[in-house]
Structures are given as structure tokens and as C-alpha cells.
């Protein structure tokens, strides 16, 4: 199976061109686990398929390194946009990409005909509790809500970018309890589809420091949908303002994100190709 390894701020995936390769649906979860394994596979945060679509030039499917399929992936979208443009699957520099969470618009930015960064309209964040999804009174938003766990009290804000995110604000990002609290919140029963867990330190009125424990992948260098959710949560909690470009500092680098008055969240950041190769699929 031919593959391309790409990353967005160190959040790397193995990309497979489904215009040329064919895979069995039932093998996808195990294939994602296989290729993501740094010892017996290629090594990545998961698997992303670039597929034909009936409603857009391309469709993105995302699998975490535990084999679970996700409805959206911000860093993945930027790499899929780069991949699709450079493969000639799209003519213009602005085009639509189908995801399981809906259609998104991407614009590639070129340097000597190579895509160096991408801007994506990530659409409208979803804030209603039952659509995150999160257990509790339907119709309410989850903003700085008390979240008790293991006899400790925390405050969480919940946002869906097509995939679920629980955001906790901290005073010191370097010592955020990512690897201790992350997995506990990820699989807490109050999140019936599990959840991505973000820790956010507000630096000033235009910068955030950010760490993430991703649903299905654990700690990653960056999470694009998570960074978008973090900006939305920061605005909902009064730390930041709409219509202002926010720089989110992730372990792997920076994303520029703005939540506009029309409700859409825009994300701009790098997308890079690491290598191509031929993977021997285990029987
Ligand atoms: N772990 C996520 C999918 C990958 C999202 C992340 N890598 C991004 O860049 O948005 C989930 O299960 O919802």
C-alpha cells in the first residue's frame, strides 16, 4: 500500500490516496493501529484516507491510533488540502473538502508551486450539550461548568467542532495535568462518545498556550479542532473577543484562529510532507 506521511505542527498521519489504493472497510481500524505503531509500523497519530466524494473534489476520513474513526481533524484537513492540490485533484487554490462532520472550505497558500500553509473554514462550533455529546440537561451550553471527578472539582467548557472537546483553563500550561486528567476525562461516562481534552492558558487578549490529550490518540503535538474549540471556549468565558486573530501556541507550533461574527471559525497553519513509501499490509 502506497502512503504519504504528512504532519500539521507535528500531528502526523499516514495518508492513503483512495483514488489509487483499495482497502477493505473492515480492515481500516486495525490498519490504523498497525501503521501508527512506531515499533512495528510506520509511526503516526493515526491514518487518514483521501477519498473520492460525490459532493466535493475529495473526502477526508480520519482514524486515531486506537483505530477509532473521528468526524473531523483540523491538522488533517490542512494536509489533505495540500495533498489534493499537489496531486492535481483540484484546480483552484480554494475548494471544498467533505468530512463526516460536513463540508469545509480550504484555501492553500503557495510558495514556488508548493503548498506551505492552508486556511480552513471550520464552520460553526456546536455548543448544545446533547450535541457535544455530553450527558446532562439537553439544550444547555456547557460553559465553565463544575465537573467533579475523583473527589476533585474542575471547571469545563464543552465545544464540538464536528468532534467533541472538553476545555479546562489552567494558570501554568507547563504543569497542566495532561497525562493524568486527560485520559480520565477522555473516557468519562458523561461523554458517551468519549472526548478530546484540552488544557488552555490565556497569555493575553490575543494568545493562548495549549496542550491536548486527544480522544483515541493520547498526547499529540497539536490538535487543530482542539485549538479552534479552545478559542471558542476562551471567547465564551470572556477571555478573548470575536473577530480577532488569536495565536494558539501548541507543542508543535502556532495556529492562527478567528471566530467571526457570522459564527464561522477560521484556522490557518502549516502543512508538511515528510515522506512517501510502500507499506506491507499485514494479512
Ligand atoms: N482525536 C480526534 C481526531 C483528530 C483531531 C486532531 N488531530 C485535529 O487536528 O483536529 C477525535 O477523535 O475527535
Automatic annotation (TrEMBL):
InterPro entries xref list: DAP_epimerase_AS (IPR018510), DAP_epimerase_DapF (IPR001653)
Keyword presence, Cytoplasm: yes
SUPFAM superfamilies hit by this protein: Diaminopimelate epimerase-like (SSF54506)
GO cellular component, one term: cytosol
A Pfam family per the record: DAP_epimerase
Sorted UniProt keywords: Amino-acid biosynthesis, Cytoplasm, Isomerase, Lysine biosynthesis
Superkingdom field: Bacteria
UniProt site (Could be important to modulate the pK values of the two catalytic cysteine residues): 165, 214
Annotated pathway: Amino-acid biosynthesis; L-lysine biosynthesis via DAP pathway; DL-2,6-diaminopimelate from LL-2,6-diaminopimelate: step 1/1
Record-listed E.C. numbers: 5.1.1.7
Chemical reaction(s) catalysed: (2S,6S)-2,6-diaminopimelate = meso-2,6-diaminopimelate
Family the entry assigns: Belongs to the diaminopimelate epimerase family.
Protein function: Catalyzes the stereoinversion of LL-2,6-diaminopimelate (L,L-DAP) to meso-diaminopimelate (meso-DAP), a precursor of L-lysine and an essential component of the bacterial peptidoglycan.
Protein's UniProt name: Diaminopimelate epimerase
Species this chain originates from: Alkalihalobacillus trypoxylicola
Amino acid at each position: 500500500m502506497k502512503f504519504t506521511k504528512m504532519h500539521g505542527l507535528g500531528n502526523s498521519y499516514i495518508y492513503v490516496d483512495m483514488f489509487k489504493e483499495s482497502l477493505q472497510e473492515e480492515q481500516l481500524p486495525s490498519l490504523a493501529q498497525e501503521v501508527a505503531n512506531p515499533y512495528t509500523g510506520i509511526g503516526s497519530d493515526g491514518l487518514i484516507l483521501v477519498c473520492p466524494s460525490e459532493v466535493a473534489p475529495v473526502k477526508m476520513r480520519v482514524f486515531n491510533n486506537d483505530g477509532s474513526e473521528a468526524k473531523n481533524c483540523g491538522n488533517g484537513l490542512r494536509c489533505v488540502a495540500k495533498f489534493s492540490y499537489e496531486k492535481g485533484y483540484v484546480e483552484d487554490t480554494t475548494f471544498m473538502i467533505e468530512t463526516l462532520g460536513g463540508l469545509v472550505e480550504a484555501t492553500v497558500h503557495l510558495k514556488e508551486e508548493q503548498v506551505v500553509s492552508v486556511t480552513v473554514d471550520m464552520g460553526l462550533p456546536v455548543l448544545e450539550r446533547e450535541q457535544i455529546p455530553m450527558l446532562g440537561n439537553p439544550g444547555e451550553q456547557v460553559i465553565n461548568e463544575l465537573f467533579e471527578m475523583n473527589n476533585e472539582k474542575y471547571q469545563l467548557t464543552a465545544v464540538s467542532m464536528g468532534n467533541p472537546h472538553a476545555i479546562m483553563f489552567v494558570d501554568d500550561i507547563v504543569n497542566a495535568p495532561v497525562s493524568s486528567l486527560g485520559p480520565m476525562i477522555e473516557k468519562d461516562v458523561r461523554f458517551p462518545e468519549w472526548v478530546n481534552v484540552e488544557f488552555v492558558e490565556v497569555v493575553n487578549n490575543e494568545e493562548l498556550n495549549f496542550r491536548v490529550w486527544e480522544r483515541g490518540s493520547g498526547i499529540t503535538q497539536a490538535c487543530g479542532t482542539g485549538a479552534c474549540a479552545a478559542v471558542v471556549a476562551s471567547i465564551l468565558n470572556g477571555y478573548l473577543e470575536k473577530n480577532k486573530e488569536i495565536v494558539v501556541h501548541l507543542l508543535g507550533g502556532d495556529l492562527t484562529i478567528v471566530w467571526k461574527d457570522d459564527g464561522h471559525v477560521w484556522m490557518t497553519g502549516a502543512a508538511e510532507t515528510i515522506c512517501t513509501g510502500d507499506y506491507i499490509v499485514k494479512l
